[in-house]
Amino acid sequence: MQRLALFDLDNTLIDLDTAFLLWAEEFAEEHRLSRKAVDYLVKLDRNGLPHREPFFSKVHERFKLSASAADLWAAYRRRMPHLVECRPEVMAALAGLRTSGWRVGIVTNGTADNQLGKLQRTGLIDVVDGYALSGIEGIRKPDVGLFEIAANRCGTSLADGGWMVGDHPVADINGGHAAGLNTIWIDRGTRPGYEHSPDHVVTDVMCATDILRDIGE
Ligand SMILES: [Mg+2]
């Protein structure tokens, strides 16, 4: 099997949940909402409406905001790339994999401006061979097509297999499996009850890069 490692972005390479909390606190302050509003936003994100379009329709309604749902969503996409971080050890681990002969790519669902902004602001765009963003390609995980694009951008194809690392049981693990990849699931304890069978289960992306490094040796 070839040394191709594809990674999900949100809550895999970057801690989106922490960035989301920062955003929610800023949002509440800007719109003069209570502390309870922050809890509401976080709960809505985690358990209810992770997709941003219905999310911001609901937020617009709930807090009777004058700005439209579309404007609130656009402001979110502008701000989010400034709030996410990729830990230096994760950046170094990706660079280390490439040094030892791995091709490293990112495959992520989300709007083009937000996801590309995150890749640029964190510097991740400079430490990988390629990336495939659903908002640019018009195709979403778990569709195999997005994994194929990511592999192509890394200068290869899915024909010789490889690995997919991500936190979403369906988009990343079932999708990666359907794409003919071995999989490592990052279990954050937030997605119980999905049918999926990853090859490895870890709690942090650093454990996943350790596994890949050992396999590659
Ligand atoms: Mg994710």
UniProtKB/TrEMBL annotation:
Keyword Hydrolase applies: yes
Enzyme class: hydrolase
One term of GO molecular function: hydrolase activity
Leader sequence segment: none
Cofactor: Mg(2+)
NCBIfam families with a match to the protein in the record: HAD-SF-IA-v1 (TIGR01549)
Xref: PANTHER family: N-ACYLNEURAMINATE-9-PHOSPHATASE
Record has Hydrolase as a keyword: yes
Protein name (Swiss-Prot/TrEMBL): HAD family hydrolase
Pfam families the UniProt entry points to: HAD_2
The protein's Enzyme Commission number: 3.1.3.-
Keywords assigned: Hydrolase, Magnesium
InterPro entries linked: HAD-like_hydrolase (IPR051400), HAD-like_sf (IPR036412), HAD-SF_hydro_IA (IPR006439), HAD_2 (IPR041492), HAD_sf (IPR023214)
